[in-house]
Design brief:
There is one protein chain. With 346 residues, the protein is mainly α. Helix 9 crosses helix 11, helix 11 packs parallel to helix 13 and helix 18 (319-328) runs antiparallel to helix 19. The protein has helices spanning 2-53, 66-80, 85-97, 100-106, 113-126, 132-138, 144-157, 163-173, 178-191, 197-200, 208-220, 227-233, 239-252, 258-266, 272-285, 291-300, 304-315, 319-328, 334-344. The protein is elongated, with a radius of gyration of 29 Å.
Length: 346
């Protein structure tokens, strides 16, 4: 028994020693890599800055090693976050001609998911047409993060040929990853506004989650061409979609939506947040036809939020709305008086 314990102790000591050696070696390698990067980074930054500032069509010569290529990519990604227009396009051209885009695209074939994720994210930030096919193939990657980054990169290209697979990937993530899906829709809406008509169409096969996100994005981006689809969405059985469509119409400033929004306020079967969204939208539109319904919402509303929103909406309707608020100051209801006082900022 004693011999067994001795061997166990020796074995554990050996393992511990090996771990310590591995940690020391890894730290030494990391320190050397960091020192090497610090030594060559200024040269890479200077070469890129000179290329961007000049008009030479040929890219500068960068240090030729795998580590240097990765460092150059990191430097370029930092710069791309700040650049726009011609300078951004020139830097993308540099990355293409220096082979960095092609090398990054090859990493999408790696067996290691961490490498594929990093490559997909980098290609998404670069937004190079040269990487379109690899990113398109990346939409079939087993890892969702890789697929989302590739979809984001394709969306940056603004090419209508990729709209269907981009939206399909966004739809896949809309339920569990709404933030990522919404970011893709924002990019698509900014590059190809007409593409957002597909998920907004109530007859399409897209998920309710993606349709709601599309309604919110269309409103936030003020894509007026989709106002008819938002008006159609007011009749949906999905209350969240209805609320987002109502807010979107208010953001766009679609005066043709007044009747539909007034109808929503009169539907007692609708959830309170739908009434709230319709009230906000009517205030944003500023149509005098909304004065009487908003007055009823203020004086007879079902809750604090609805009354407060109605008061603020009336404030935005100008003279007619302010007259209602002035009358509300004399109400027997303390809450009504308070909401009117706040809205009038007195």
């Amino acid at each position: 028994m004693a011999h067994i314990l001795i061997w166990v102790v020796v074995g554990l000591g050996t393992i511990l020693g090996a771990l310590i050696v591995a940690i020391v070696v890894r730290r030494a390698v990391s320190d050397r890599r960091r020192a090497r990067n610090q030594a060559i980074r200024p040269a890479i930054e200077a070469a890129m800055a000179g290329y961007l500032a000049g008009d030479d069509p040929d890219p500068p010569t960068l240090p030729d090693s795998r580590g240097a290529t990765r460092l150059a990519r990191a430097v370029a990604l930092d710069a791309l976050a700040e650049l726009k227009g011609a300078e951004r396009e020139r830097l993308i051209t540099l990355l293409e001609r220096s082979g960095i885009v092609a090398e990054t695209a090859e990493e999408l074939q790696s067996r290691r998911v961490r490498v594929r994720r990093s490559a997909a994210e980098s290609l998404g930030q670069i937004g190079s047409a040269e990487a379109a096919q690899p990113m398109l193939e990346g939409l079939n990657d087993p890892d969702l993060d890789v697929r989302l980054s590739c979809a984001s990169g394709l969306a940056e290209l603004g090419d209508e040929r990729y709209v269907a697979p981009i939206l399909s990937t966004a739809d896949e993530a809309a339920g569990d990853r709404p933030g990522a899906a919404a970011a893709i829709l924002v990019t698509v809406g900014g590059r190809i506004p007409s593409a957002l008509a597909h998920p907004l169409d109530l007859r399409s096969e897209f998920s309710p989650e993606l349709r709601r996100l599309a309604a919110a994005v269309v409103g936030a981006l003020h894509i007026a061409q989709h106002a008819p689809l938002l008006r159609a969405a007011l009749g949906s059985d999905d209350p969240e979609l209805v609320a987002r469509a109502a807010r979107g119409l208010g953001m766009i400033g679609d005066m043709d939506a007044t009747a539909g929004l007034l109808g929503l306020m009169q539907e007692n079967g609708r959830p309170w947040f739908v009434h709230l969204a319709a009230t906000e939208a009517l205030g944003a539109l500023g149509d005098p036809a909304a004065v009487a319904p908003l007055e009823r919402e203020l004086t007879q509303g079902g809750g604090w939020s609805q009354q407060s929103t109605a008061a603020q909406a009336l404030r935005r309707l100008g003279v007619a709305g302010e007259a209602v608020l002035d009358r509300a100051l004399a109400s027997d209801d303390e809450a009504v008086r308070g909401h009117a006082l706040v809205a009038l900022e007195r």
